[in-house]
Write a structure and sequence with these properties.
459 residues, five-stranded mixed sheet, three-stranded antiparallel sheet, 16 helices, 16 strands, 13% strand, binds ligand P70
């Protein structure tokens, strides 16, 4: 018999206490943080779901790798182990380490971006969009229609609309599109996977116009596992084989290793084009460091290499995907609206349906984020008009496509009882939703404002 209970596929060797606070204390702390949980001290948070990025618990083998790190400035043995591990999955010619994902993006788009250039993606994540726009280029989201409807269930809601892509290329001109990207899984659209068929179809269009295809590969293993579960023909393939096939259609990739490489810092750029790789390496030397460490220590490279081996383990991925699904299903059963089906790394509460009376310009997602903290010391993040809202010429808010609250689950950090606690808190906030008010922004930075914005509750 196959047991129904899916257990954490690890034992705990080292523990870190979490701090309990009272509601009164949290009220004070939230005011001090300008109602922006990004500005709270991590120590004042009980369950931290701000991000799954850089928050993984490392394995004993990763910690052993840290001790084995070779800190040679050039040609470190740890670089070669890292290169081999990345190459095993991506099978790409050039592997360039960076200190995190956005450093890879910054290098890539500084070279291929600029005024008059356009970059299509299923959905650009905020840092990708910011790096493209910072270069003067335009970032275009071409998500499939079903991906825009939180309540509709479909297997691959992260897919790109291939017809729209071809139209976009014709409209903007091939010469103005230096590359096309696919983000796996689609973070801003609910952590939803992209199917192999879609990657293949996008590649076909890209090939027709000789446009290189890049993967934003932060969560490649979670995407590959969804393909194994949901796409015909892949049920008997290993996750590694599926990942290799995903990368085989790509000409390059950016990766924040802080997600599916199970490390606290790291990233890379990978590509086949010799000339582009040379340009990227040269810029890397100016901004990050020598090409065999790229802003990381040798020990970090060891931890990434080991993490990449562990992340394709199917017991790990089964536990990972099932525990996120467990959380999603329990709160859906209680009536809480979320993006369905549950994503790979996070549950996304649909704030528009949760708080229909709070308009996007009063930031319903922020209202939920604040209440989750007040109710249970839980830190989540708004992925809606705070993160993606823009202003028109008259200073009126152009809202984001969706108003979401993301509960990102750090890898291998929390157990089922933490998740059960969380379910209780979310349901309590949902029961009291009529008492919640909107917010206004009192301070914002010109770019990536969500990280540092300050808010005031509206009464
Ligand atoms: C997240 C973090 C990072 C990211 C990503 C994709 C698809 C590139 C990057 C950049 C960022 C974040 C958001 C809210 C709160 C904290 C952190 N995503 N592409 O949590 O990688 O961070 O290494 O520069 O998701 O989703 P990096």
């Amino acid at each position: 018999m196959k047991p129904k209970t899916i257990i954490e596929p690890f034992k705990i060797k080292s523990v870190e206490p979490i701090k309990f606070t009272t509601r009164e204390e949290r009220e004070k702390l939230l005011i001090e943080a300008g109602y922006n949980p990004f500005l709270l001290r991590g120590d004042d948070v009980l369950i931290d779901l701000l991000t799954d990025s850089g928050t993984s618990a490392m394995s004993s083998k990763q910690w052993a790798g840290i001790m084995n790190g070779d800190e040679a400035y050039a040609g470190s043995k740890s670089y070669y182990r890292f290169e081999e591990a990345v190459n095993k999955i991506t099978q790409m010619e050039h592997i360039i380490p960076t200190h995190q994902g956005r450093a890879a993006e910054k290098i890539l788009f500084s070279i291929v971006g600029g005024e008059g250039k356009y970059f299509p993606n299923n959905t650009h994540f905020d840092t990708t969009r910011a790096n493209i726009e910072f270069s003067g280029a335009v970032a275009e989201d071409l998500l499939t229609e079903v991906g825009k409807h939180p309540e509709e269930r479909a297997d691959f809601k992260g897919n790109m609309d291939v017809e729209k892509l071809e139209k976009f290329i014709k409209q903007k001109g091939v010469e103005n599109i230096p590359l096309c990207m696919i983000t796996v899984t689609n973070n801003s659209g609910g952590g939803q996977p992209v199917s192999m068929q879609n990657i293949r179809e996008v590649k076909k269009v890209c090939e027709k116009y000789s446009i290189p295809l890049f993967l934003d590969a932060c969560r490649f293993a979670e995407n590959a596992y969804f393909i194994k579960l949901r796409e015909k023909g892949y049920e008997n393939k290993s996750v590694l084989e599926i990942a290799q096939e995903m990368f085989s259609y790509a000409d390059g990739a950016t990766m924040s290793a802080k997600k599916d490489a199970l490390v606290n810092i790291g990233g890379f750029l990978a590509m086949n084009d010799d000339e582009l790789a040379m340009q990227c390496s040269n810029l890397l030397i100016v901004t990050e460091g020598f090409p065999t460490y790229g802003g990381l220590a040798g020990r970090d490279l060891e931890a990434v290499a080991q993490g990449l081996e562990e992340v394709v383990d199917e017991h790990y991925l089964e536990y990972r995907i099932k525990s996120v699904e467990y959380l999603g299903n329990k709160i859906v059963d209680a009536g809480v609206p979320i993006i369905e089906p549950p994503g790979g790394h996070a549950i996304y509460i649909d704030a528009k349906r949760f708080l229909p009376n709070i308009a996007p310009d009063k930031y319903p997602g922020q209202a939920i984020v604040c209440e989750l903290y007040l109710e249970g010391g839980v830190r989540a993040v708004e992925i809606g008009s705070v993160m993606f809202g823009k202003y028109d010429e008259k200073g009126k808010l152009i809202p984001a496509m969706m108003e979401l609250v993301r509960l990102a689950i750090p890898r291998r950090v929390y157990t089922q009882s933490h998740i059960d606690y969380l379910i209780e808190i979310i349901i309590e906030v949902y029961k009291n939703r009529d008492k919640l008010n909107g917010y206004e922004i009192t301070y914002e930075a010109p770019m990536l404002r969500h990280f540092t914005a300050k808010f005031k509750p509206l009464s």
